Fold Flippase.
Amino acid sequence: MSIIKNYLYNLTYQIFLILVPLLTVPYISRTLGADAVGMNAYTNSIMSYFILFANLGLSLYGNRTIAYTRDSVEERSTRFWEIVTLKLVMGVISFVCFTIFVLFYNQYTNLLWLQSIQLVSTAFDISWFFVGVEDFKRTITRNILVKLLSLILIFSFVRTPGDLPLYIIIICCSGLLGNLTLWTYIKRYIRKVKISSLNFSGHLRPVIILFLPQIATSIFVSVNRLFLGGLSTMTETGYFDNSDKVIRIFLSFIAAIGTVIFPRIANYFKKNDYKKVTLFMSQAFDSVNAISIPIICGIFSISTPFSDLFFGSNFDGIDIVLSILSIELLFMGWSSIIGQQFLVAVDKPKGLTISMVIGVIVIVVSDLFLIPLHGAVGAAVGSVLGEFTISAIQLIYVHRNNLVDLRTLFKDLWKFLLGGMTVFITANLTCHLIKESILQIILSVFISTFSYAITLMILKPRVTVNLKNQIINILEKKSR
């Protein structure tokens, strides 16, 4: 049951990492406007490359390293301080590079300096350690308080388009404060070590290997905003950014699965227990399908009333962008489990790197053709094509290298697709029968969720059967 508990803890953590900006989207969309939202997205995309360099793949590497060494306090402590030192050094180097960049780049200078607070936040981020030891509970309370504080500050002080700098300060500083508070828990797990015992050379090669797909991932995530800002307008950039924020909150439900499974797979792989590695892999894949497919069908059904209510009249037509982007949830879920979690956990990052590089090429070519003609809609199509390419290549890689049996992974996919069809049909029928936007959304979600649950109860996919058995076992233990 610890997997389920960790999933719920991590799900809460992931949601709160992005919950505040999501909750403020309706307010910010109306207060700042599409242009200001676009400028924030554009400058944040530029900053993401310096953050990437500062991180150097150390967070993902840190997750795996701590998962490998968590049974030994001495080794765990040594590896922690080595990785933390490397992160601080890379943070300083990245900030120097950023300073040089700003001196030569004459656009949005003030906003870029404010975004640079994220570099400091990255340098002091140790959330990777808690993922490695599978402790998701302790980080939740403090992050909730920090995010709620930023929410209060945004609603209190951000009132006009001219308040964009203040908005960036609030968001960036809340992230920094959240990362700093994690240090208060570290004494429970880490001991002091002698500086002379630290050895950094052993980390360089695996970190660089993991850094390569991280570069491709960062380019993939930010390229749409950069191309929209350069080939289209800031308004179109704002359309895409707001749609992407909504998709990211749903992605947190899916990403939490991989984050929880990762340390468990890495630990079993280190112990050469390949049977359990395969078991957790298939369970995670089924869970992704079970969650992402009904969400996609639901978004397609209620995107219009949701967009009108959530974004306001300034973002007319954003429902099309949102609907298209929702398709990538399924492919992002697959690549999260296969690439970001499984291939890294079993020390096979080559497949991840290849898939990300080809995915970047696909999205760049797509954006060059589609964005000048279709703006945010073109960027959404390019994003979906890129995510599909990444997941397809990863599936081919694990199949050809006999790492995973694809028939096992896709065995229950048809059941979730059938359940998704019931969601689409019931939600659309509800929207046609009811005209009020709020009622359309509430009743569509409630009725379609009920119909999906009934469908899965009838079809009995493996993931629901396993969940039912675990719940029964827990109830039986408590009744004794």
